[in-house]
Amino acid sequence: MIPGKWPDNPENDEDSVLNVSVDTVSFIIARSQEAWVDSPYEEGDEVDVTERRSSEAGFSELAQFIDDLNEDERIDLVCLMWLGRSTITIEEFEQARREALREATQSTADYLLSTPLIADYLAEGLEAFGFSVEEG
What we know:
By secondary structure, the chain is mainly α. It has helices at 22-36, 49-55, 57-67, 71-84, 93-103, 108-113, 118-128.
């Protein structure tokens, strides 16, 4: 997959442990890196996702892409972020899915994209499962 290119086939392999494909996560990683590259934000800063969505086309497109994923894919993105930032362990992933579903109070895109280090966290979450970010 070419970083930043829409995934050709966002479907998962039937034997995958994740409900979201590596291509889809890789796309989100590449696009979020682009969105945050010139950003003055650092981890822990409050980010107004609504403002960024309305003022930045690339950010808006990425948010819409995430919003358009199915619920299971969005839940796994949240859990991959948690895993990548060491909020959960890989052994807690299944339980974290239930917690993420139960605690969802805002759009997944808004939640994920309000985290400046989202690309790093998603990549680390994939690596915990033995996957690497697809680059081509």
